[in-house]
Specification:
12 helices, oxidoreductase activity, acting on the CH-CH group of donors, Acyl-CoA dehydrogenase, single chain, 396 residues, Butyryl-Coa Dehydrogenase, subunit A, domain 1, 4-stranded mixed beta sheet
């Protein structure tokens, strides 16, 4: 595990910080610290323009292989980029799912034709993706996916029917990667396939879901014989589970350090308020602030352990504990923020009574222990896959 950075790494850090300082200006200044979790509904068009700005500077796909159009930066430099991006207040990435999930998955499992056709749009900040995994009866338990797909009589198109849910930014996406059951009568992990589906078609309906924060950044998506070309199947029919799990492994990659820098920014805001309103003098709150600070350091060191292993989508044991650890930490930060604010936590400044950043944080973190695999599922994964304990006995 590498904790420090070389002189050349630190020179690269200055390059990244300088570029961001120069470009998060003018039309993009309003985007600083906007568009993160709980605020993803903000400035979608402007954040898409920002993706193109990043692309023009060579800051999309920094960790991708050169043969896929990326810069092939070292893990150290990728960590630096994500940390400096969050430190500078870079907005929530509209292209994250394409760059962080779809791109590495196509690099690992896609055909040369698929990579040549689909990767440039991501690298140029032109094509945006959403994730079609969860369903009303298959959230954390993806093996229960019921969305179905079949080849039409010509063998040239897949026809997809079913419902996905909690699909972030589906209303802004050009493409969706869909886990669907392509083998009739199959159950569990078997018979699933990984399909790439264009969103701009009449047979797909996107319906927003309003959250506790009053925003609607994720959606239900209904597929009614939705179409995609036969060559938009990744891997072979029936390999969907393997590919889907690898994609989740890529999700717990270098960008986790950027996520933690966003957490750092939130914690700094809580600390600033605690010093200003006197909450920092309360010994119990001071202890909780210290615990939050040290907990974030532990998350960072564990992420560095994760990144010391292979970056092929496989989940090392260190990666299996990450979701459970950060989601619980973030929930506690939301509670701490409200206690530091005191009475002000219950008050909205003025009409139209929009939530403050910390109020939105508190409400949005209610979902952190559910989405991306609930705490209960995460504990099963740790027990069964990381520790090798006996599998959970299913209900009779």
């Amino acid at each position: 595990m590498k904790i420090g950075f070389s002189k050349s790494d630190e020179a690269f850090r200055q390059e990244v910080a300088g570029w961001l300082a120069a470009h998060l200006q003018g039309e993009f200044a309003q985007l600083r610290f906007r568009g993160g979790p709980g605020d993803e509904h903000s400035f979608p068009a402007e954040r898409k323009a920002w993706e193109r700005e990043l692309a023009s500077g060579g800051w999309v796909g920094v960790g991708w292989r050169a043969e896929d159009g990326g810069r092939g930066l070292s893990i150290s430099q990728q960590v630096i980029f994500h940390e400096e991006y969050a430190r500078a207040g870079g907005p929530g990435r509209m292209g994250h799912i394409g760059e962080g999930l779809v791109g590495p998955t196509l690099a690992a499992f896609g055909t040369p034709e698929q990579r040549q056709r689909l990767l440039p749009g991501i690298l140029q900040g032109q094509a945006f993706w959403c994730q079609g995994y969860s369903e009303p009866g298959a959230g954390s338990d993806l093996a229960n996916v019921q969305t179905r797909a079949r080849l039409d009589a010509s063998g040239e198109r897949w026809l997809i029917s079913g419902q996905k849910i909690w699909t972030s930014l589906a209303h802004e996406a050009d493409w969706c990667f869909v886990l669907a059951r392509t083998e009739p009568g199959s159950v569990g992990h078997q018979g699933l396939s990984f399909l790439l589906v264009p969103m701009d078609q009449a047979n797909i309906r996107v319906q927003p879901i309003q959250q506790l924060t009053g925003t609607s950044e994720f959606n239900e998506v209904f597929f009614d014989q939705a179409e995609t070309a036969a060559n938009n199947l990744v891997g072979q029919p029936g390999e969907g589970w393997k590919i889907a799990m690898a994609l989740l492994g890529f999700e717990r990659g270098v960008s986790t350090l950027g996520q933690q820098m966003q957490f750092h920014n939130e914690l700094e805001e809580v600390l600033r308020i605690a010093r200003a309103n006197g909450a920092a003098r309360d010994p119990l709150l001071r202890q909780r602030l210290a615990r939050a600070w040290s907990g974030l350091k532990v998350l960072r060191y564990n992420s560095l352990r994760m990144l010391s292993g292979p970056q092929d989508g496989s989940l090392a044991r260190e990666a299996m504990i990450y979701k459970l650890a950060w989601s619980n930490w973030h929930v506690e930060l939301g509670k701490l923020a409200m206690d530091v604010l005191g009475d002000a936590a219950e008050v909205l400044d003025s009409a139209p009574y929009g939530l403050s950043r910390l109020q939105s944080l508190f409400l949005f973190t209610r979902a952190d222990t559910i989405y991306g695999g609930s705490n209960e599922i995460q504990r099963n994964v740790i027990a069964e896959r990381a520790l090798g304990m006996p599998r959970e006995v299913k209900g009779r």
